[in-house]
Amino acid sequence: MKANKIIALLVAIVLTFAITSPADAQFGNLLNKAKNSVQKKIEQGVKDRAERAAERAVDNAIDKAEQHVEKEASKAVKKASKKVAKKTGVNVVESSSSSSPIDEDDADFMLIYKKKFKPSKEALASNQFANSDEVPEGFTKSYKELYATFEHLEPSLFPLQPYYKYPVVYALGQKRINQSDVAFSTLMKNCFTSSTGLVRTISNIQLWGYGVDEESKELISEDGQKLAMQMDDAEFRYAWAALFFADPNSWHSVWNLAMLMVNDNRWLTMVKEYEVTTNTGIADATKGWMFPYERFSAKEREGVMKHMARQYVDIELIARCVLTLYQKVESDPTPYRKALYMFAANELYNQILKEHKDFSANASKFNQQTMLYARYNNTEESRKIIDDAQVEPEPPTMTLKPGAMNKQLNAQILKIMKQKDPDVIRVVVISDSWTVHSLKDRSVMAWAVYRNKKGKLEAHDYSFCQDYMGAGKYGSLRYKGIGTQTVYVK
Questions:
Q1: Does a structural domain hold residue 267?
Q2: What domain of life does the native source organism fall in (predicted)?
């Protein structure tokens, strides 16, 4: 019966958090913007302004639609709760998203941080930190208290037990806690600096499974089954969740929750992908790997964490963390970190602070956070922060080789390009022959060489054509358009 209760409670939480948050809409169309540093025409500026206006209109429409979805969601949760009760025999308390959907008498697995546990003999023998009174940075409890609580984590959310057999996944000790922070920062840097033009880099999340390296040999179950986890789960999600359940009212736990919400933000999911998209069952049949999760995984676990933060974490602590994140947006000189802090602040404000059970009664205390959210949520300023974080990949360096048409057309094309941009130094016609588009035109390609702002020679490809005039004749050579290639000139 206890298992059924836990499943019912988790399902209720998952249903509550299954609705896309309005914060996700703030960056809805950004990845459709292709930067073009070559064209300097007035028409391009007009086009850019039109795109921004269109994006604002779409984002506003998304926000309005999602507000409607949220209103309908409470009805859906009530219906789903009745279905859960019918299947499991457990009644789930109906409520709004800002109040608890859980009967507090059944919430023991979320309230373990209130209890005092002692480390087991096995933990003391296996974990050097199990009896340490040292308090890790950013937390309120000692290693001894944290790890004693780890022995009582809910198995459906934390299936790797006993914890001390998985020191890497649980990030035991300050060194490993620091390593989890570094792993997260590295992933975020890759995501936020990804370019968003015709070609964009993608952060691939791979599996970390038994035998991949020396540390991965801990990934084996009590019955000898080889296991695998998503790399981000193994590197930081699992450990941060365990620490949150053990000490939710600590600065580091609230901070990490904000970062986990960034990791799950819709914009981030568009610039990263999981090589294996499932999280339960078979992970890799050829290697004999299984996922440790039977039903729920990191996403559902983080949904429970959001609920805990809304219900049990001090609202003043959350508000201070939101404010600190916004202050870092304004003070940090590194573009990708500014974007990261902005996302984290927006998520923590929108999903946790304003949905906290104590927010309505104390809303006036948090006017500063509310104003900062309005400033950095779905605004031109927020878009610029994201654009500034993106790093265009360095173009390749190559020798420009002239084609057979170079001698014949070089002077004409150089004259045309000089009229368009006096900064053009020279041109190199690439084509060996005309490319004929029947009854339309014939065209050639050429490199135009510039000196960029850093003084380096750079070339972009352009097309030029002669329009078909009929009777086998073609008109004068004219500019046709810009290509997609940029190279450094050797």
A1: no
A2: Bacteria
Angle at 356 between CA 350 and CA 359, to 5 degrees: 95
Which residues have C-beta within 8 Å of that of residue 116, sequence separation ≥ 6?
Answer: 145
Three-state DSSP at 289 gives strand
Give the Cα separation of 91 and 93 in Å (integer): 6
* Same-domain pairing of 14 and 61: yes
Do 129 and 232 reside in the same domain of the chain?
A: yes
**Which residues on neighbouring strands pair with residue 208, listed in sequence order?**
229
Same domain, residue pair 116 and 41: no
Range name among 33-37, 158-162, 192-196, 437-441 with the lowest pLDDT average: 33-37
Distances (CA, A) of 116 to 137, 160, 314: 21, 22, 20
C-alpha–C-alpha distance, residues 373 and 351, integer Å:
12
Residue bearing the bigger pLDDT, 465 or 48: 465
Q: How is residue 206 written in tokens?
A: 């791979």
* Domain range for 20: 1-106
Return d(Cα 194, Cα 183) in angstroms, integer.
17
Confidence check: pLDDT of 478 > 90: yes
Give the whole-angstrom CA distance, residue 82 versus residue 73.
14
Average pLDDT, the chain: 83
List of long-range contacts for 70-74, beta carbons under 8 Å, 24+ apart:
70/19, 70/22, 70/97, 73/16, 73/18, 73/19, 73/97
Extract the tokens encoding 109: 């697995």
Domains identified in the chain, total number: 3
289 forms beta bridges with 284
* Nearest C-alpha neighbor of 70 from the set 13, 8, 15: 15
Burial of residue 364, with CB atoms counted within 10 A of its CB: 0-12 exposed, 13-18 middle, 19 or more buried: exposed
Residues 6 or more apart whose Cβ sits within 8 Å of residue 344? 258, 259, 261, 262, 325
Instruction: Give yes or no for a contact between 310 and 303, defined as CB atoms under 8 angstroms apart.
Output: no
Instruction: Check: CB of residue 336 under 8 Å from CB of residue 192.
Output: yes
Last residue of a domain, one of 90, 106, 122: 106
Asked if residue 339 lies in contact with residue 386, where contact means CB atoms within 8 angstroms, the answer is: yes
∠ CA 209-211-213 to the nearest 5 degrees?
95
State whether 43 and 151 are in the same domain.
no
Of 362, 363, 302, 314, give the one whose Cα is nearest residue 16: 302
Instruction: Judge if pTM exceeds 0.85.
Output: no
**DSSP code, position 19:** S
